[in-house]
Amino acid sequence: MPSSRILPEFELLMPQSVEEAVKLLKKYKAKASVMAGGTDVVVSGTQGFATEAVISLAKVPGLDYVKFSKSGGLKIGALATLQMVADSADVKKNYPALYKSAAINGTPQTRNMGTVVGNVMRASPSGDCACALLALGAKIVFQGPNGKREISIDEFFIDYKKTARKADELAVEIKLPAPKTGVVSAFNRITRTTLDLSKINAAVCLTVSGGVCKSARIAMGAVAPKTIRLIDSEDLLKGQKISDAILDAISASVGSQISPIDDVRSTAEYRREVSPVLVRRTIEEAIG
Amino acid sequence: MSTSVVGKRIPKVDSRDKVLGTAEYAGDIRMKGMLYGKVVRCMEYSHARVKSIDFKEAMKIPGVIKCLGPKDVTKKGYNTTIMKLLVPEEFCEVFGEIAEMFIFNQHVKYQGDAVCGVIAETEEIAERAADKIKIKYEPLPVYMRASESRKKGAFQFTSLKPGNLAGEFDEAVFPDNAYGWPDADTGKMGDDLESECDVVVEGNFYVPKQKQCQMENHAYVALYDNRGKLHCWTSTQMPKPVQVLLAELFELPMSRMRVFQTVVGGGFGVRLGMIAEPHACAMAMAVPGRPVKVEFLREEDWIASETRFPGNYDMKMGFKEDGTPIFVEANFCADKGGYYTHGNGPVFCAAAFVHGMYKWKTMRQKGQSYFTNNVPSGAYRGYGNPQTSFVQEQLVEEACGKLGIDSIEWRKKWHKSIGDETWLKGVTYASDDLDGCIDLAVKDIKWYEKKKKYAKQKGKKRRGLGIAVMNHTSGAWPMLLEHTVCTAKLNEDCTVELMASISDLGTGGHTAMTQMAADTLGWPMEDIHLNSGDSDVCGFDIGAHASRTVYCAGPAIIEACESVKKQLMERAAQILEARVEDLQMDSKKVISVKGNSKKSVDARLISKQGVYNFFDPVSGKQIGIPGQIQGYSSFLANHCSPPMGACISEVEVDTETGEVKVLELVNAHDIGKAIHPPSVEGQLEGGAQQGLGFVTTEDIYYDENGLCLNSDFTDYKMPGPSDMPKAKIILVETAPDPIAPMGAKSCGESALMGPIGSVANAIADAIGIRFYEAPVTPERILKGIKESGKTFE
Amino acid sequence: MNKHPITLTINNQEYSITVAGHHTLLQVMRDQLDLTEVKYGCGRGECGACTVLVDDDNEKSGRKAIDACLALAATMDGKKLTTARGLGENGDLNAVQQAFVDESGIQCGFCTPGMVVKSTDLLEKNPKATEEEIRFGLEGNICRCTGYVKIVDSVKKAQKVMTKNKKKK
Predict the structure, then answer these.
(1) pLDDT for B429-453, tens place per residue?
(2) Where are the extended beta strands (E) located within B148-198?
(3) Which of C28, C61, C69 is the mutation pick for testing A, counting most A CBs within 10 A?
(4) What confidence score (pLDDT) does residue B1 get?
(5) Pair B468, B520 in one domain
(6) Chain A within 8 Å of C122 (Cβ-Cβ)?
(7) Mean pLDDT across the stretch A69-79?
(8) Is residue B395 a contact partner of residue B201, using CB atoms and an 8 Å limit?
(9) Is the pTM of this model over 0.80?
(10) Do residues B504 and B561 share a domain?
(11) Quick check: bond before B775 cis, omega within 30?
(12) Which of A1, A85, B86, C156 is disulfide-compatible with A102, CB 3.0–4.6 A?
């Protein structure tokens, strides 16, 4: 049986640079997993899942950054921990959805270890940062054998734990657009206890001008095989004055866009019932 | 100045050791030449027969010492519990044959059942080897609920218990298979009286398979030494009975079976009796001279150690218009899990605590436990009482609503009190201040003000208040044996070593015992040390169960210390040529004649001379009085003084998401006397967390094949620090018990019941819908709201 | 080769050892270095019984709390670590540990070494933490005995003592 005390045997590789890490990925491809903070890779190991090799980024310098500029937006390095992101005043001010998704993620210890980039790469349908970053319209920067490649997070989640990352690519950075006037965001989730994985989560990012929603991105997690956008709801909101009536319409639109399941954390019925409530509350929170 | 320490808020005796992490738990033990044992468990099936076991590949791994199958260990069956040590032999017949568990089982009755074992040089090698053992199984039909396994034609778990009925209230002891009493005037039972009632309430409840979740995983080290003695270091709650059980299982005289209880990292009942002591010992016997360590993984805790008794609990109550309680009828049909272990014990106790609570005209409760393919249900803090709180306190509340009677006043009027029978027939309450508890809790939480306010509330979030009262027990006399032996050895420097097998699971028991000894002797606590846990050193003690330590073991400590004191005084009397009754001893241990302090002798000198009893060559006489003083007590409890208590909770229910937040919780407890107040509070505060877990989040889930879905803290959720309200504990000391040692009643298990019943009632109060299944999850609440058609605006 | 020579400084003592790549810091601390105050509670970063402090330049306090069960030992090469046994000076108790003793914030004691390490980190990072922040900060350290009441009381007591000591300095 898998053991929560003794991990399966694997080869631990500790490259000293991004280039070296990419070389190793090119060699091992899917036979290697990439480990930043370890909070996912090690837990998977305790559940009996392990690749032949684990490439740890522990000795790769220069990836533990959270950089912000008003014109350039936010850049999160692959080794920036959840806590670093949660501690950033710039993130808290300009990207409240991301702030919250990082600040309530896991435990203080796992926030000190786990990374935001890792949370997205793991592509768990219930990932909190993944949900927030999808709403915020993040871009992901990969380093591969042939150089850098940047994709929109919209293209990243393909199916259950299936992503657009190529096996020989290393995610080195996540970027968020520069803050613009009228852009607001929020993140919320429902859990069994304070410390928990999300039963469901939702994030919104809206551009509001004079009470009218100019653009909208609404994301949800744990209601489908992957983190999803609620495009129909976004369309309902775009160009509209945010009113009770429009919020009612958005709530009513959620059901047809989600496909939740029963699992140990909740039931499909409950998720279906509460998703519209959560989306509505998150929009309300975003617009304040 | 008085040196009394009883009732003082002093640091616990073991706190420095624990705060530095130097306290040694069984898993921390390292020994020269130690090997590691891995119990190989059936993970693929919850019900199967083992067709074959192939060790070949496993044995090829370097570092593997031995693989053991069913044929390589004793073929004797056993029961993990001490059921047969607790009651007279005649009564044991009621249980029938219950030793139906084997160290390695060929008939797998739940996922996690032990099938074989590996011994290796390291734990990692043992784990790798375990994965290489090839076991073939033949699957058998799976029954996860009593309602399935009790059906006619169901596969029989054991020929010893026909119909898969592990136990019920045996006709020989309980006529009509029921516990209770008929109406004293008419002899009628509930059925006959129902038509005379003005209000009848009933409910079919489900109570969950809650897990103890003690933080320390079960761990054992065993050594079969080269003189033929078997040693077992274990985190059991019951070291002495485990010594007996292991000696029986391995057919060794007790003189060759030593059990050593290490520091225990929480118990809550899961460690009553044995868990994997037999496996560790069997492995040790296979490699004489080398210690073998067996340490559970956290996930093994859920699949291979016992849980609370879950099942269907139905209850019906009848009342007169004026509130007079007429009858209560109930049936608790429990899912037993794969083995007998505690049999029907907690199901009986669920009834017993109904018995001890209210003044019904008649009560009749039945209960059965049927085998099912989940991990055995067993002892968990409260032992049936938490289930009763969820059921009984909700129905009482519902009835009061229908009667239009204030449920606070109803409870005050109709709860049992001094002179009434407690949970057990023939044993009466000698003290009670439940009314005081209720009044203090009501006042503290501002019950009436808030009730008034919430009656008018509007909106999507609704608040509610709920109350529950409870009775429990202080030790299990006279149903079970309550016996503790204590030897108090007076050292030559006039300090005391107490030797008693008293378990402290984190409860503060060792601190309380030391305080009681210190006050008995009138000496500082530093001069007293409690040596416990080593079966070679200590006399009998039943172990930590049934909230017994202060009430049942405390008197043994007191008696042994009194004996030490008495012997010192007698010697002093001889030396001072005075009468014992004219002497007094001060806190500096000087014994003097009352009113003549110059006529004195130092007890330290008496102690020293008792040991160093030299012969004076000049006078030709012995110096001092010979003999090292020892006090001794073999104390058998002869009464039970149950505590009562009242708990009020306030909750907020989010009617859109079904989420419940417990805002406040006040638990007033009729302790009589708190020996160590922080420990008593700590028991009640901690119990509140377990109670809230029962009622809001905790249950073990299985898939359709009986495989556990939440064997980790990721998916077995307990309230965390942010989820817990600040539990407020009120210790009520207005009714010290006249029989209890120093007036102290129990508190260990009492803590769960009030929070469970009161939160369930508070949820119903908030939204006007009652929930019959625990835990009351947001999923159940939303479903309930939907079905009720209620709207909250 | 799956063997990694590493150096760890734990409680100011340096250990140069060779570890297997797949061995966790918890496993190495307990089984190779005999530092059994670091407890195995769940192995999955849920319970915090294995909480230790590790030095980190990104932190104002210079260190942070992590779960030893989730860190591979080899990746911790060169790090400075602190366990419950090394919190105080010269093997004595620090203010947090003393407060846990004084307030009876300890029952079975199994979560305690991790709890005091975590509480120390919490107060170093946020000396003015409110009760709500203390409770949220203690998430990830499970105690099944106390209902967290006396643990929170202990942290608050330590907070007072630490504030007072700081003023004195």
Answers:
(1) 999 999 999 999 999 999 999 999 9
(2) 165-168, 179-181
(3) C69
(4) 45
(5) no
(6) yes
(7) 97
(8) yes
(9) yes
(10) yes
(11) yes
(12) A85
